[in-house]
Amino acid sequence: MNKIEKLIVKYFSGFITREEWHELNEWVKNSHERKLFSEYVRINYAIDDIMSEFNTERTKKTILERIQKDKNFKAKNKRFRIFKYAAAIIVFVSLGILYQTDFFTKNSDKSMPQTVDEITLELQDGSLQVLEKNQPHEVVDSEGSVIGVYKNNRLVYQNTSSDKDNQKQNLLTVPYGKRLEIEFSDGTIAYLNAGSSIKYPIRFGKSTARNVVLSGEAFFEVSRDTLRPFVVSTANNFDVKVLGTKFNISNYPEDQTTDVVLVEGSVGLHSDNLEADVILEPGLKGSFDRLKGKISTKPVITKVYTSWINGELIFRNMTFDNLLKKLERHYNVTIINQNSEFSNKRLNANFGDEPIEIVLKYFKNTYGIAYTINKNTIIIN
To answer: Taking the model in full, what pTM does it have?
Structure first.
């Protein structure tokens, strides 16, 4: 069994690690056999979903054993032949089961996973779970205990506190093109934007600060607790400390600054380079310059920085390169900018829930920016 085959088995079995997940994800993205792999996922999912007594592990083992027996294919067609053979076996095994259970009439509109580019939850033991928008399920730890429930694009943890569980960390990762809500054990809610990840304990301790680590962007509605401050940590030793408030924090790697916009309450901004914390009031944006190690503040229209929660895009005085990066995350596309003259030009724009084609037409009509679209890749000419 080669490495890719092992990763596929781990993916279906639910025992794939974060590193293995990324490796499989990259293989699928770059593989010419992506369509066949998607069919393989779809049919296998159908079997697992409607036949609880069906031995999927035995089926997967049989498929791989049959693949190994076919040694006559040429090296250049190896991956194609493997998945063509695997898909054929799955189809053969599946058809009788699906027809016997009236799957095609009862479940014709059921949602099926098409790729491995999904929201993932890494548990303390390193195992990875996939959170699919239309598939509610319980989140169970390595000991078999239910620690949370995922439903309607929100992950909710049990509303209890325990010093024992404070060390058990989960890592939630949201890929490009998707968003997610998470309700922590204390009732605090975080809205995660595309291309973000957050690390947190499954339950906050009874007498310690509520610490989470964020990469990307999130809007927080923090449950008030004067005895346990809520602390959001980012890179470069920058922390946001609150007791109970609503604020947005953007910490993407391509940005030079980490921006905190306060909507309600108050927050303290802390950096090891500063002698004292900077306190924000509602309507202010605090920007931590990662290169200079300094924090500046200014009044802003908060809606500009929180509209993404409702699927809107509002750009104000943003460089064209940064704007394109945010479009990549929002629409899950690849954008190649060949127009160097526009790279550092600062633009303003407002978009609702329009498709990417409408956004591109706006820039073409307003700024004369030409572009071409080739499947999931956009080239700015």
So the answer is: 0.69
